[in-house]
Amino acid sequence: MVHTFHLATPGLVRVAMALARPPTAARVQGLRHAECMVPMRLGASIVSPWRWQVRRLAMFAVWQDEAAIDAFLERTPLGRVLARGWHVRLRFLRRWGRVAAFDGLPASDGETDPEAPVVAVTVARLQLLQVPRFIHWGKPVERQVRDHPGTTLALAAFRPMRTISTFTIWHSARAMTDMVHGRDATPDAERHADAMVERRRKDFHVEFTTLRFACLGEYGQWEGRSAIVPR
Question: DSSP 3-state assignment of 158?
Fold first, then answer.
C-alpha cells in the first residue's frame, strides 16, 4: 500500500464537489480510501476568514500501488486538478489509535531511524458535543506546532461535520516525539502533552488515529515552495 497527501487550489465549486462526492474504491481503480477536506490555517481564529481556506482542497488517500496513483492523476477530473498542485507519496511506519476507514494497518512496520525526516497525519471523528473542549485545548497546540522549528510544513484540514485532520512534515522523528511529549526547549513545550492528558481524561473523539510515514516522493509546488520534505 501507498498513502498520499495532496494540496491544490481548484476553487470553491470544485472543492464543494469533492466534499460532496469524494473518490471511492468503487469508482477509482486501485484506491482503498480517500478523505477530501478543506485546509485550515493553524493558529488562526475560529471566526477568521483566514482560517477557512475554502478554495483549497486537501486529500489524504491510501492506494494499492503507485500505478493506481498515476492513473488517477492522469485520467480523472479530480485527479487532474490535484496533479496541478502538490503531493507526497508515503510509506507507512507507525500507527497509534484507530479509525475504521484505515483499518488493516499494523501498529508498526519495523524499526525507524529517529533522526530521519517523517510525515505525520492525524485523522479524527469528533464528538460534536465535545467540540468546544476540543477547540479550547487544541488552539494552543496548533500554535505550538505551527511555530515549531522542527516542522517544514504544518496545517490542519476538516470535512463537515466531524472529520478533522492534521498534516505535518518534520526534520526528524525525534523532533516530533519530543514535541508530543513536551521534552523540547521551545516555549510552552508542555501544551501538546497537557492536551493528551485532557483527551485521556475525557475523549474529544469518536475515532482517532495518528499515522507516521516516510516520504517516497514529492511532486509539484505548494505556495511557491518545492522540496518541502527534508532530504
Answer: strand
**Structural domains counted in the chain:** 1
Domain that holds residue 180: 2-220
Q: How many CB atoms lie within 10 A of CB 65?
A: 10
3-state helix, strand, coil in the chain (%, to 5): 30, 35, 35
Euclidean distance between CA atoms 126 and 141, whole angstroms: 17
Average pLDDT of span 169-190: 93
| Single-letter amino acid, residue 160 | P
Question: Which residue, among 68, 91, 90, has the nearest Cα to 79 in the 3D structure?
Answer: 68
Dihedral (Cα; 195, 196, 200, 205), 10-degree rounding: 80
Task: Give the integer Cα–Cα distance in Å for 29 and 31.
Answer: 6
The pTM assigned to this predicted structure is 0.94
Q: What is the pLDDT of residue 111?
A: 80
For CA atoms 23, 96, 215, 147, the dihedral sign is positive
- Flag whether 231 is in a domain: no
Beta-bridge mates of residue 2: 63
CATH of the domain at 63: 3.30.70.100
Q: Which three cell numbers stand for residue 127?
A: 464528538
Please name every residue paired with 34 in a beta bridge, in sequence order, or none if there are none: 61
